[in-house]
Write a structure and sequence with these properties.
Layout: E1 4-6, E2 21-26, E3 34-37, H1 38-45, E4 50-54, E5 59-62, E6 67-76, E7 82-92, E8 99-104, E9 108-118, E10 128-133, E11 139-141, E12 152-162, E13 166-174, E14 181-183, E15 188-193
Antiparallel strand pairs: 1-2, 2-3, 4-15, 5-14, 6-13, 7-12, 7-14, 7-15, 8-11, 8-13, 9-10, 9-12
Length: 195
C-alpha cells in the first residue's frame, strides 16, 4: 500500500465491509492493475492505537530512595511491540540535588529508552543530562537543578517488546539525601501499540 494510490475510494471508509475490494495503482501505473481490500485500506489509513495518562496532583516528598510513581504507568502484553514517551515536570528543593529517573518493566525481549533531564545549567549551555535505560530498575542521575522550586522537565522515550505481561512504570527520586523532588501534576505519558 505504501507505493500505491487508491482509485475511487468511498468517503466513509469505516462503513466498508472488510472484504470489499478497491482498485489501486502503483506509482508508475496509469490504470488500476491490482486491488486492495477494505481491511487492508483501513489498517493502512488508521493510526496505531495510542494510550495517554497524566498526573492530576503533585507527588511530593521524594527523597533519595527510588520511588515508583503511582500514575505514570502502562500495562503491556507479551509479544507486542510498544513505543512510549513520558514528559515529567519536576522541582527540587536544593540546587545541588538533581533528579534520579528510571523505569521498571516486565521481562522483555528488547527494551531501551533515552532519559533526558533539563534544568542542569542555564539555557543554551549544555543544559540536558542524558542517559540510556536498558534494564528494569535502571536509572539516570542528574547532579543538579538550576533553580530551586522552579518547574523543570525530563523526558523518557523508548520502545519495548515484553516477553511477559506486566507494567511499564516510571520511577523517580532525589539524586541524594538533603532535598526532596516533586513530580508535578500535568506530567504525562503516551504509548503506542505497534503490533
Amino acid at each position: 500500500m505504501a507505493d500505491t494510490k487508491i482509485i475511487n475510494l468511498p468517503t466513509d471508509i469505516v462503513a466498508l465491509a472488510d472484504g470489499d475490494k478497491f482498485a489501486v495503482a502503483d506509482a508508475s501505473a496509469t490504470a488500476a492493475d491490482t486491488y486492495a481490500t477494505a481491511l487492508e485500506i483501513k489498517n493502512y489509513c488508521v493510526p496505531k492505537p495510542m494510550v495517554e495518562i497524566h498526573l492530576t496532583a503533585d507527588e511530593t516528598g521524594k527523597t533519595d530512595a527510588t520511588l515508583t510513581d503511582t500514575a505514570l504507568l502502562f500495562s503491556v502484553t507479551s509479544g507486542r511491540y510498544y513505543m512510549f514517551m513520558f514528559f515529567i515536570g519536576y522541582q527540587s528543593t536544593v540546587a545541588t540535588v538533581g533528579l534520579k529517573l528510571g523505569m521498571t518493566t516486565p521481562t522483555f525481549t528488547i527494551f531501551t529508552a533515552l532519559s533526558e533531564t533539563a534544568g542542569q545549567v542555564a539555557d543554551k549551555a549544555g543544559a540536558v543530562w542524558q542517559g540510556t535505560l536498558n534494564s528494569s530498575g535502571d536509572a539516570t542521575v542528574a547532579t543538579a537543578t538550576l533553580t530551586i522550586n522552579t518547574d523543570e522537565i525530563a523526558i523518557i522515550r523508548g520502545f519495548i517488546l515484553p516477553s511477559a505481561n506486566g507494567t511499564l512504570r516510571v520511577q523517580y527520586a532525589a539524586e541524594t539525601t538533603g532535598a526532596t523532588v516533586t513530580m508535578k501534576r500535568g506530567s504525562c505519558g503516551v504509548m503506542w501499540d505497534l503490533t
